[in-house]
């Protein structure tokens, strides 16, 4: 069974509250999502292996820790996941970036795929799939399936808010995929929106509606 990591850090929770606030406009919303994504990246990478290396300081020689050959691919689910990429890349600048275009049909709530491109060496990389909202879970279940079909084996999901329904769906279809996020909310409303949630993340990021 996959693990669900809820990041309770005060900075993450404070910024999430600002993002939920209906008065927060696109500029601040984008900045906050990038900042929270950076903080979640800190947790996602906590178990990355390090090795002891020798380093010369201006005064002497000592030892330090360095990451061992970790190769990462960041894969946002368009559109809203794009808002998380900058935060991840600030901490993992050498990561390659894939894109998965999926929108949720407003009537059926089923995911519709319209564009996918991921690094060719994705099988050798730790894959971080990013999408701020995990509602029914349909979109993220499809995105993980796509990455697995392309050879991806080590996959983690980074999100902002999930509904319990979405987490159950992800665990059922992909029990090997851990999730890192800022909050698990109460439930979905009759239109498949997360309650209390923050509304439509893509629209709030880009000022569409
Ligand atoms: O868990 P699900 O029920 O699949 O819903 C979540 C999906 O819905 C939103 O995308 P949306 O369809 O609004 O596309 P957008 O990001 O382009 O606005 C969100 O960013 C997720 O991708
Ligand atoms: O609450 C929700 C559900 C799906 N997509 C969003 O952006 N928000
Ligand atoms: Mg949207």
Compute the average pLDDT: 97
Give, in order, the helices and strands: EHHEEEHEEEEEHEEHEEEEH
Bound molecules: 1-O-pyrophosphono-5-O-phosphono-alpha-D-ribofuranose, uracil, magnesium ion
Please state the overall shape, judged from the principal axes of the Cα atoms.
globular
**Biggest sheet descriptor:** 8 strands, mixed
Distance between the termini: 37 Å
Multimerization state: single chain
* Count of strand segments: 15
Number of helices: 6
Q: Percent range for helical residues?
A: 25-40%
Radius of gyration: 18 Å
List low-pLDDT spans: none
Which structural class matches the secondary elements?
alpha/beta
What portion of the residues fall into strands of 2 or more residues? 25-35%
Q: What this model shows, in words?
A:
- With 209 residues, the chain is α/β, with parallel strands linked by helices.
- 33% of the residues lie in helices and 30% in strands.
- It is built from 6 helices and 15 strands.
- The strands form 4 sheets. Strands 1, 4, 5, 6, 7, 8, 10 and 12 form an 8-stranded mixed beta sheet that branches. A 3-stranded parallel beta sheet has the order 9-11-13. Strands 2-3 form a two-stranded antiparallel sheet.
- Helix 1 packs antiparallel against helix 2.
- It is globular, with a radius of gyration of 18 Å.
- The mean pLDDT is 97.
- It catalyses: UMP + diphosphate = 5-phospho-alpha-D-ribose 1-diphosphate + uracil.
- GO terms for molecular function: uracil phosphoribosyltransferase activity.
- Keywords: Allosteric enzyme, Glycosyltransferase, GTP-binding, Magnesium, Nucleotide-binding, Transferase.
